[in-house]
Specification:
mainly alpha, globular, 18 helices
């Protein structure tokens, strides 16, 4: 009876001890027991595990390969992050030095007429705020003085005309007086304006026409004004708009230059420019529009070197960047009262003075606030005996 009890005891112990070993092997190593279980299991389960076994090793090396470059990529990512930071700083520096990249793009080529009208009128409104005192810059007391001064302003500046006409009108105050004048005496007075012989012929001729055909009075109609010697549409509109209060567009060299820069029109002939711009604005605004554009052309938007960096309408200008964009350098290019120099009128209206304008000095007088030695102010008068030098601002019509 005792022998069989002992035989049973070891069997139970063996059966109970074996399973823990198998479990221990399965849990200790994940790869080795997987093979053992595959051999112990049925044939139908073996291929299923074999298929799972193929992706398993494939997955194991894959993370290992990904982990290796992952350790390297952070090292590479560090310089790449630093590089864009440097590039950004490099790009930021030129953006400050050249504002052309952050200012407006040119208007589209297919800009509609409505969009053009809106843009043009907005520019005019902005110029009206910058030049609320815009006015004709020729000194005159009556229509006769204005028509003569306008004829004399061709190929010179209004400043030079204003410095010359006091002597002319002091000696010949009426059309009858100038019509009977000695041409040689008139030429001597008009010599500083340049082309004095042709201008003498024109002003004496128009004075005779006023005396003989209009009773010594300047006519107030366009068709009559253009019949006078030396008087074209530009001069006629100056007289009509400023002496008679009748709207007109003055297409001088400044006006032509700026309306093309602003892409209001691509016309080059004055009459076509006049028609094109007249269609963008109501007739009541034509005279003041001319003053705004001409003021801006003389003071900031110069022909050879526009002061783009000091231009108040830069965000609206499609030609921004054609001139100096640096604000400090552009400030030095400003002419007349915008740059602190004398203006063009000897006797400007009070509104001009109230806004900070400076009257022009008489011919030959010293200029206040003169620039550094060797440099002349834009409004500085030249010697009375000298005509406009080639390439000088006096060559451009006032």
């Amino acid at each position: 009876m005792a022998a069989p009890k002992k035989a049973v005891a070891p069997k139970r112990a063996a059966t109970t001890s074996a399973p823990p070993k198998a479990v221990a092997r399965k849990t200790s190593a994940s790869g080795t027991p997987a093979k053992a279980t595959a051999t112990k299991t049925s044939a139908s389960s073996a291929p299923a595990k074999a298929t799972t076994r193929k992706p398993t090793p494939a997955k194991k090396p894959a993370p290992a390969k990904k982990a290796a470059p992952a350790a390297v990529t952070p090292a590479k990512a560090t310089p790449t992050k630093a590089t864009p930071a440097k590039a950004a700083s490099v790009k930021a520096a030129p953006a400050k030095a050249t504002p052309t990249k952050i200012t407006p793009a040119k208007p589209p080529r297919n800009e509609s007429h409505t969009a053009l009208v809106r843009r043009a009128r907005r520019i005019n409104r902005e110029l009206g705020e910058v030049y609320p005192y815009a006015h004709p810059e020729l000194d005159f007391e009556n229509p006769f003085q204005l028509v003569v001064a306008t004829v004399l302003s061709a190929q010179t500046t209004d400043l030079r005309v204003n410095q010359t006409t006091p002597a002319l009108f002091g000696k010949y105050p009426t059309p009858e007086d100038l019509a009977a004048a000695n041409p040689e005496e008139v030429e001597e007075i008009l010599r500083p304006t340049g082309f004095f012989r042709a201008k003498t012929k024109s002003v004496i001729g128009l004075s005779r026409a006023l005396r003989d055909d209009f009773g010594g009075e300047v006519p107030g109609r366009l068709e009559d004004l253009v019949k006078l010697p030396g008087v074209g549409r530009k001069t006629a509109f100056v007289v009509l708009g400023n002496a008679f209060g009748r709207p007109g567009i003055t297409v001088d060299t400044h006006f032509q230059r700026l309306v093309r820069r602003w892409q209001w029109t691509d016309a080059t002939e004055p009459d076509k420019i006049e028609a094109a711009i007249g269609g963008l604005f109501p007739k009541s605004e034509w005279t003041m529009l001319s003053h705004h554009v001409i003021f801006h052309g003389r003071r900031i938007c110069h022909a050879r070197k526009p002061a783009c960096g000091a231009c108040p309408i830069a965000p609206l200008c499609p030609a921004y960047g054609e001139g100096e964009t640096d604000p400090e350098k552009a400030q030095k290019l400003l002419k007349y009262e915008k740059g602190g120099f004398p203006g063009q009128r000897l006797n400007p209206p009070q509104s001009y003075l109230d806004a900070g304008g400076i009257p022009a000095p008489p011919l030959g007088a010293a200029i206040p606030s003169a620039p550094a030695p060797g440099a002349s102010a834009p409004g500085a008068p030249a010697p009375a005996s000298a005509g406009p030098a080639p390439g000088s601002p006096a060559r451009e019509a006032g």
